[in-house]
Amino acid sequence: MDKHSSDGQLDLPWPYAWEVAHRKTSSLRLARVATVIFLAVTALIYVTRYPSFAIFMLGLATVVGLLLLKGHLVTLAARRKGVLGISRATISGRDFSIPYVVFSRAVTYTETTLSIVTFIYAATLPLYMDDIPFASTHWTGRHLVVGLIASLAAIYVVPFLVARVARWRQPLGIALAPEGVYHWSWFGRRFLPWDDITEARPVLNYGPSIKLICRDSIWTSRPGDSALCWFGFFRRYMCTIHAGYLAVDPAIAYYGILFYLKNPDHRHELATDAGVERLRRMDFPPSLAEELSDSAKA
């Protein structure tokens, strides 16, 4: 398995689905940047005649720009993160530490900033709806813009902001233990035993993600899981790991989970330094990548 690219950066083969998304994102970079520039220039053009509309367009450009930045961080930039985000952590109730991969600070801050800006943008729209030129009446403007954006903000942004406050300084990421995978997201923690995981599948879900296919017994909440794990939809949600958010190349997390899933005899090393060293060296058999490539293209 080729672990280094020509420029000396760490490099693991990406799953086919991730590779296709990476190429598409790369090819559309100029078009996306042009969109943000267009929105910003439009705001400048209308700044004297329709100042409120200019504010509306500038706010939209900011939200779109943050969305594109987040997409860049979890897809294009994710491939060059290396292994510095791999450390060890001690889970409550244990007398040994296990490999732990945190969320990227850049992704975390961008996601939080995006939510705050989107919420403020939606909440202040009623203050300058009168000057939007495409609205035939004052109330039409409110219905077209405020109704749509504010509703989306209420559905997505507000729960996220509440979760960020509730989990301030709490861990975000994944940890691999001899008996299973720990997953910390914005909304809490979930433990997934190796014996209940039947497959680790690379998928696209807001960037490169790892979907853990589990047996029926996984739908039972376990001690230590977050309160939200009482709900089936959240247990299903926590079976998908947003690997692009991690502070390492998403492929390292994916191959690590896949390796220990397929090699139970090696799981004991996750309780020692050997587990961390394997992840940092990316010491995975070439057959793992070959098997993945064949199954993905089949």
What's the short story on this structure?
This protein has 298 residues and is α+β, with helices and mostly antiparallel strands. It has helices spanning 16-27, 29-45, 51-76, 105-124, 138-166, 232-237, 250-262, 273-281, 286-297; strands spanning 86-90, 97-102, 173-177, 180-185, 188-193, 197-204, 208-214, 240-241. Helix 2 packs antiparallel against helix 3, helix 3 packs antiparallel against helix 4 (105-124) and helix 4 (105-124) packs antiparallel against helix 5 (138-166).
Distance between the termini: 21 Å
Kindly provide the radius of gyration, computed on alpha-carbon positions and rounded to a whole number of angstroms: 22 Å
Biggest sheet: strands, sense, closure?
A: 5 strands, antiparallel
Counting DSSP E segments of at least 2 residues, the number of strands comes to 8
Order of helices and strands: HHHEEHHEEEEEHEHHH
Structural class: alpha+beta
**Order of strands across the main sheet:** 1-2-3-4-5
How large a portion of the residues is in β-strands, by DSSP E? 15-25%
